[in-house]
Sequence to fold (443 residues):
Amino acid sequence: MKRIHVINNDFVNYMKNRDDLYKDQLTGLPNKRALYENYQNVGRSRLISFLYVDVDYFSGVNEAYGFSEGDALIKAIAEYLLKKCSEYHIYKIEGDEFLVALVGQNDENRLISTATEIINEFRNIEFNEDVLSMVKLSVGIIANQRSNVRLDSIIDKIKKAMQNAKEQGKENCVVFCEKQGDTRRFELESEMEAAFTHNEFVPHMLPKYDLTTGKMYGAELLCRWNHWLDGIRRPADFLPIMEQTGLIKDLDLYMLEEACKMKKSWEDLPLGNLLLSINMSGETVCDKELSEEILRIVDKYGVRHNEIDLEIKETSFFRREKAVASGLTRLIGNGFRITVDGFGSGCSLLTLFDAMGCTTLKIDKNVVKKACTNEKGLELIKAVTKLCEKLNFGVLAEGVESKKEENMLKKCGIKRVQGFMYSKPMPIEDFIKYGLSICNSDI
Fold:
């Protein structure tokens, strides 16, 4: 019997570039996926310490000087940390957040000294002085954690320490201790529960566009906390605590109901047929009762299931693969659309997404940025796009901020996009005005 070997060149090219997915597209540092993989290989009885470095007021740099200057600043900070902490492992975790790791027994005072030097000497890096004057660094510290502890748990703790450093006036470092973390967590839990009662969680809308037609076809709901005292709080300040406490499930359902209310109120408007996307945590998707609650909420408002798009973070798939698969099967079976959010930032298992019945991949904004400056990044997007066409996946690119990026995506065959080039997130009232004004015009 003869064996026939079929070689899919698109898949070969994709696998060749897969190593790039372990790197942050902007700085070249190992990314969050690399962190999780390396942590698993440390060994179960080792000690490990972390510094969590956050760039305060970074959004102000983007607003005042543009995203290119913001990117340049992040690259400069990455280079600074590499030089300053040469014996440590440096990871780029989020847009303006870095994790510094050191394996082995460490003196807490030494970690504090290192963090203090990072903060104080940051002002001396070679960069635009006006930009540097706008930002500060805050550092959270956690020492000598056993490597058999879940990494998510350690990161949650060190984020609490970093948040406390910010609350003490920024340009501070704080060491995590259990009592301190539990007190702050209790305070935030109480505030968040009250926020649901007082409707302080509000959706902001980020439009999505079709490059083929030049029209808006949908929008993503992004949660903002309009705190009665502080005003608008960014998601990074409250979503991690919600994930720890289980309140994220309540928020997911709350945002879904807000989306359904909008769809119902827009029935007689040109906005009525827009596809609305709601972010869903892996915890919500895995819960059978909550999957049924999703169905109940949507049917309560008479919204068509295929006009609701549930966005699931790519990282949710490799943390609880079987449970997520089971939950998605129920939702897809009821006609909901499923988008894999942040594709390229985590595990990138196309075969898994295909088996689950996902409908759309949202390419991570950092992958988009790299493709404009790096041939490998460009080839990666082309290969992924071709594979998605063969698997009948839709493809959406996020974080588009320039005409150069848009033209590159068009050449790669991507038709659907979202990003600040077209619109920033906006409150519902502003979105309705905006949507009605462009219903019959191009982007």
Summary: The chain has 19 helices and 15 strands. The chain has two domains: 23-176, 188-438. The radius of gyration is 22 Å. Residues 189 and 241 are 8 Å apart (CA to CA).
